[in-house]
Every structure is written in structure tokens, then in C-alpha cells.
Amino acid sequence: MRLLRIFLTALLLFGALYAGDPLPSWNEGPAKERILTFVEKVTREGSPAYVAPAERIAVFDNDGTLWSERPLPFQIIYAMDRIKTMALRHPEWKDQQPFKAVLEGDMQSLKKQGKKGLLTILAAVFAGPDRAAMQNEVAEWLATAKHPRFDKPYGELRYKPMMELLRYLDSKGFKNFVVSGGGIDFMRAYIPGDYGIPSERILGSYAETRFEKGEIVKLPTVAYVNDKAYKPIAIYRNIGLRPILAVGNSDGDLAMLQYSAAGRGENLQVYIHHTDGKREFAYDKMELGTLEKGLVAAKEGDWLVVDMKNDWKEIF
């Protein structure tokens, strides 16, 4: 009994210590310390850096920042799966690019189509009346389709340290927003439930739309790609406040971080650097994104660069 009591006491003490750490999946070190110090500064009343709750705006890129993005952003993999199903109703696709490349599994031809080809695929998949069934299809795919390397459902490949950061900021009165190049319809299907960020705080790319018989109908043409300089524009239009915290992982997020850094008062800019080839992936370049200019800007501006290999105890 005595050994049992000792074990239970130790377990309770360990649990208390763990519960007292808002970022338990982060290794102790400069990165974790800088985040905690920043949040304490801007939320402690009487601090010279205090920021009122209404102005505690935090913006996050999604792909490669809040969840994994290789071998391709998951929305693109989902769309390619859907194209194969939808092709039964579109026999003409077998002779039309980029659909022909998807149906034949010809990734080289698909790459030649570039971003325009990928946007064409996404627009085709998400076109039509806005409907709850589509969100259910996305949610089911994320729960069942498995990543080729990790053999886990794509929906489970969220970064645990980043989910902790979102919860921590929320507990400190921040309003978290996702500002991503991903399609807004795809992200709305899972982010509210998985990240705890409501639909109205999700800013993404979207298709041309029209209002028809009481419904919003999405057309198979892209209206707005929320990337690079368009990210701060989307923040300005939709949020109306400059973020005091901005987090990304590529040069596509650079303008968003610069917009945050140009604000008055205390602010923090963070790059998530993919350095862990064993537990995730190590890269600065991929087909749809590069981190080069961002690292230069981070050094010049004293931004925080999170080294996934050294700063995170766990990835997923």
C-alpha cells in the first residue's frame, strides 16, 4: 500500500507539473521562453507592453504551420481523389488537362500545369451550391484516407505543439485566426472542430460565387488566392486590426509577418522551420513553397525561428 501511495503521489505531482506547463510538447529553451515571455508581457495588466484583449490578434498560416503539408498540401490530395470519383460524370476529363494527368496518375504532367492547373482542379471539386454534405465528405476523408509515409489519417497530422499554442493563446484572451492560401470551404470543414477556431476566423482562397434562389453557388473559377501580399490585405479587409502575433512557414507568409512587425507596440513574428527529417520532413523548398527570403527577414528583424527538430518534443 505504501508503494502504491508513493506511486499515486508521484503521478499526481507529475500531472500537476505537466498541467502547469501550457506548452508541454515544446522543449525548454529560447523558443519556448520567448513565446511565454511575449504572452506574459502583453497580457499582464500594468505591463508597459500590455495589449487590451480586443487587440490581441494572432494569425497563423495553415499548411506547414499548423499541420503537415507533404508530399502535397492535403487539400490538393483530397481534390485529386475527388476528381477520380467525379470523372464518372465528366467523361470529357479523360482528354482535358489537368484532369487527364490526375486520372492517369501522371504527376510530371500535372507539375507542368503549375499553380494554374492545381487551382483548376480545386475549383472543379468545390464548385456548386454551398452544402453541408461537402463538409461531411471532407471530414470523412480526413478521418479515413491515410498518409503514405506515416500510415495515419491526414486529419491526425496536426502539429501537437501548435495545437497547444492555440489553446494557450485562447486562454490568454487572444483571438486566433487562420490566414491561409488553402480553400476556405475545405478549411471550414475541419478547423472549427479540430483547432477550436470558428469559421468566421478562417481566411482563405475562394472561388467566384453568385447568389441563386436563396443559395450561394460557387463557380469553377478562382476569385481570390490568399497568398503573399494578399494575406495582409485579407487581414486588413476582414479583421481590421494589425496582428501582434503572426506565424508562418514559407515566403508566402512573409508579407503577413512583415505587416505584423510594422505595428506599434509589442509584437512577435514566428517562422516554423522544417528541420526534422526523421519525425516529419526537412526542407526549405517544395513544389508550392519556399523559405528563403523569410529566413533573411527573420535574421534582420530578430524574429523567432522555431527549429522543429530541436524545439519540439513531439510533432503529431
Describe this structure in words.
- The protein is α/β, with parallel strands linked by helices.
- The protein has a domain at 24-70 and 156-311: 3-Layer(aba) Sandwich (Rossmann fold).
- The protein contains 13 helices and 10 strands.
- The protein has helices at 2-20, 30-43, 74-86, 99-104, 107-126, 132-144, 160-171, 184-188, 191-195, 230-238, 254-261, 293-301, 308-311; strands spanning 57-60, 128-129, 175-183, 202-212, 215-224, 245-248, 268-273, 285-286, 289-290, 304-307.
- The strands form 2 sheets. The protein has an 8-stranded mixed β-sheet, with helices on both faces. A two-stranded antiparallel sheet has the order 8-9.
- It is globular and about 65 Å long.
- The protein starts with a helix and ends in a 5-residue tail after the last helix.
- 38% of the residues are buried.
Summarize the structure.
The protein has 13 helices and 10 strands.
Tell me the number of strands: 10
Mind telling me the CATH class of the domain at 24-70 and 156-311?
A: Alpha Beta
The first-to-last residue Cα distance is: 37 Å
Q: Residue share in helices?
A: 40-55%
The appropriate CATH architecture of the domain at 24-70 and 156-311 is: 3-Layer(aba) Sandwich
CA-based shape: globular
The profile of the biggest β sheet is: 8 strands, mixed
- Overall pLDDT metric: 92
Structural class comes to: alpha/beta
**Count of helices?**
13
Q: Uncertain spans, ≥5 residues at pLDDT below 50?
A: 1-18
Beta-strand content estimate: 15-25%
User: What name does CATH use for the topology of the domain at 24-70 and 156-311?
Assistant: Rossmann fold
The succession of helices and strands, N to C, reads HHEHHHEHHEHHEEHEHEEEHEH
Radius of gyration: 21 Å
CATH superfamily grouping of the domain at 24-70 and 156-311: HAD superfamily/HAD-like
Strand order of the largest sheet: 2-5-4-3-1-6-7-10
